[in-house]
Amino acid sequence: MTFGLVYAIYFLDETLSEETSQANIARQQSLFESRQGVGEVILRPVRELSILNRDSFFRKVAFLAFFSGLALSGDRGLLIYYLQDRLSFGNKDIAIVFLIAGLLGIVVQGCLLNPLTRNIGEKNIVVLSFIFGAVHNVMYGLGKYHQIFVDRH
Fold this sequence. Notes:
This protein is mostly helical. Helices cover 85% and strands 0% of the residues. The protein contains 6 helices and no strands.
């Protein structure tokens, strides 16, 4: 996590333009200075979520991301039980698996995501990520049949 933080601070590009960043800073300062600032700060995340309802693409992406996250959470739980039961992994081994997955996530998001977004576009990145997620879940499903085949031979 510390490496990811340092990498983000020193090497990742700023996604907001200077003008947008300054406007956001000024708006936040005015919110804290006004009497309605507390209510505004509390309701701001709800209003910012309204971007998901901006058009049908964002609604679909939010819907798919929710269920993709749900499936990923289930997959991780099953992976932990499988590693402990079949491969006799202990807590240290499982921690190493998740450390490797986290480091690979940092590498992909920090090094590959920006060039891929420039080359194939944001919408295609979302589509590609859901395709890989679907392939990942199909591989979990086929893993049971592979184990049956291995046990027979």
